[in-house]
């Protein structure tokens, strides 16, 4: 196995293992591994492929717990965000935006840890978060933290949060894939490599579900905030 396939396998396995447990962070965990051996645009294509494969599995299993109304509200703004994000991925230099997203995520986590904090009414700006989530999903495949903020604010329990995140990220992936194909960022060579990694990806989904069933809601919420904080740091220090 060459270095590219090895790091692709490790990144996808680790990312989607975590994704299956908490409902997001697949791209945030996988991206640093992939960027060691490939450009950002190629890494986004690989991650998008595996999101596309996992989406029907996640949605089928978690359908009854998905907040469908919230999902519909995020759909339109996310679509326009994805379009703008992929354009920036092709023609822009989005490093500054990645660092800005990292700082925003860190500040959000720190605010969430405050024992006494003002109530955040994010419901009025769902469209803004949907657009920004789609935008960063288009550029880096890392719009998850922004969706976490709005979905966590709008849902009442971990089960609904996790299921709605699966639905939201799956919807964004369905929007992103056609754009990547049309622009030529996704190639058949990447598809062949993805097929090689597929057994490890399936194993990650299986093991992630097993681990999720053994964790309680309080611990999962702590894991969510911890991974958000780490992802924010990774986005800030990445080059």
UniProtKB/TrEMBL annotation:
It is a multi-pass membrane protein. Keywords: Cell membrane, Membrane, Transmembrane, Transmembrane helix, Transport. InterPro entries: TM_pro_TauE-like (IPR002781), TSUP (IPR052017). It holds the Pfam family TauE. The chain crosses the membrane at residues 7-31, 69-90, 96-113, 125-148, 160-182, 194-213, 219-237. GO terms for cellular component: plasma membrane. Its main location: membrane. It is found in: Cell membrane. Belongs to the 4-toluene sulfonate uptake permease (TSUP) (TC 2.A.102) family. This is Probable membrane transporter protein. It comes from Flavobacterium gillisiae.
